[in-house]
Amino acid sequence: MLKKFAMEKSTPVATLIGHGIQLCKEDGATKVDKTNYRSIVGSLMFLTNTRPDIQYAVSLVSRYMADPSKLHLQEAK
Fold first, then answer.
1. pTM of the model
2. Which H, E and C letters describe the chain, residue by residue?
3. Which of 18, 51, 66, 68 could form an SS bridge with 72, CB 3.0 to 4.6 Å?
4. What does the pLDDT read at residue 49?
């Protein structure tokens, strides 16, 4: 999955969603490609079958699949 989304050199983090992160539909950030965002979120949804600990974070980012912005993409990654 990391290869598919060109994230092989990404740094792992201990927490999935930062404390106090509040995403909103109209956050003023630039919009991103919906197809790529949906592909990332879909892959994450598939992972929730074996990793239930990521389910909350995935459900949070999946709310913005209709019109994702850079901030939404950053949180999904």
1. 0.80
2. CCCCCCCCCCCCCCCCCCCCCCCCCCCCCCECCHHHHHHHHHHHHHHCCCCHHHHHHHHHHHCCCCCCEHHHHHHHC
3. 68
4. 92
Q: Name residue, tokens 């404390």.
A: 19
Q: Which residues contact 65 (CB under 8 A, 6 or more apart)?
A: 34, 37, 38, 41
Report the alpha-carbon distance of residue 57 to residue 46 in Å, rounded. 13
Residue 24 resides in a domain:
no
* Total domains, the chain: 1
Q: Which domain holds residue 72?
A: 34-76
3 within a domain of the structure (yes/no): no
